[in-house]
Amino acid sequence: MFSEMAELFAALWSPRESFRTLTFWGALSTCVYIMGLLNAAHAIMNVRLSQSAIAWSVFLVTTPWVGIPAYWVFGRRKFNGYTNSLRRARAACEADINLMRKSLAPHVSNLPQPLTPLQAYASKFTPIPFVDGNTVRLLVDGEATYGAMFEAIENAREYVFLQTYILDGDATGRKFLSALSNARERGVHICLLYDDVGSFALTQKFLRDARSAGLLCAAFRTTKGRGNRFQLNFRNHRKILVADGSVGFTGGLNIGDDQLGRNPSLGPWRDTHLRMEGPAVKGLESSFLSDWFWATDTLPYPSSPAPQGLAAEVHQGQMASLEKQVDSPLDRVSPPVGNVPVLTLSTGPADGIDICSLFIGALIDVARTRIWIATPYLVPDEPTLAALKSAALRGVDVRILVPAHSDHFILHFCSISFYEEFERVGVKIFAYRKGFMHQKAFVFDDLVAAVGTANFDNRSFHLNFEVMAYVANAPFVSEVADMLARDFEASDAVDLGQYERLSLPKQVMVKCARLFSAIL
User: Fold this and answer.
1) The pTM is what?
2) How far apart are CA 39 and CA 74, in angstroms?
3) What are the pLDDT digits (tens) for 153-192?
4) Which of 129, 265, 307, 336 is the most buried (most CB within 10 A)?
5) Which of 464, 480, 453 lies closest to 371, judged by CA?
6) Cβ–Cβ < 8 Å for 47, 75
7) Residue 118's Cα: distance from chain center in Å?
8) Max Cα separation, the chain?
9) Choice among 438, 457, 462, 487 that is catalytic
């Protein structure tokens, strides 16, 4: 036996076999390094930021074995195919969209100075800018938010569109399923959309139960479509509920027990959501329709033509089984119910320009007295970081609320890397100590308050599909400011020099985490 093994070993390591092995690996290495050069050229031509282009090209040329797959997954900054999907959707319902715009025209807000430039900004970014005639209600934490959402589902008579990043099949998820199933029994048309990465733990049993109850369910998959196989770095982070086109919700809360503080490792969950009524709800509905069309290649109404080649979990004869036919309500705008101007701004990696960071930057430039930001993840891009530092230097009260204990340690270390820069210009950081703080709420002077899904980080600015509600109403701004003031009182002012007192290994981790800020 040993002699046979020795003969085999000698054969494998004979000069001829060794030469063949070396030739194979030499040829393979040459191909890989050539591919690294080609990918580096692609990065130079397509990556927007010069720093990122340089980093990628050096990485691809020096370590192509690791750099090439990393670039295929993380190098993209634009979502391929989504724009074409929108173009098809708009062509399918062009008449309804034109009617919707005409119906919204009388409600377009005439904002006072200094907000006039913001309306011009908004009109460039979205067909639904700031519109009047709305009411808004601030919802603090999970119990209040879920209660209001269940009430809207119970009162719905025609349709409910529900979209979330994380959908858990736990007790909370089951409670939502029960509410939606009861609405379906009343003849209400139900569409449920979730992100396939965020909801990776969702069970097939939950989806089978949902479909059995008559709900249309779809997953938002970024890898869908030709050429998108490695498009794994994008997320649909939106949270939207629309009932009958008249009541809408958005904010930081997903659907799961964690959001009610039932996860002992995170503790109490601090979050903020927004309920609105009026013409601005059409912005949330349009955002949902765009995402649904990407996921299913159809509009979510029973009266629309039967689609072809759609995901089996969405249809399988469900369209024919729906008893109540609902005409497309795209052209139906909810009548005015108040006097609050609201902009519902949807942003994402399919935008031609970086709308999310540009609009927030415009608000920072407008502010003269205060900028208060609550975000679970603080990883701003360079333009937004520069705008914040400039605001602090001109005397604006810039405060940023972050959680004392994060659920992502890499993001936490990356956030720490910005503290020294903020300290130099007078930006104040507060760490919320009563559990995990997940809200996304901003206040700019007494002019505008924002509540929605976008974190103050590169991922939300450039890689995620997000939606924010910007409210230009002094009483509401005051309400949000009072809420944040209470949160500041429940927080500890961060000693911005804490980085210098970290151990050397942690200092290295902070610096290393900063290197990945563009994809965090």
Assistant:
1) 0.86
2) 13
3) 999 999 999 999 999 999 999 999 999 999 999 999 999 9
4) 129
5) 480
6) yes
7) 22
8) 92
9) 438
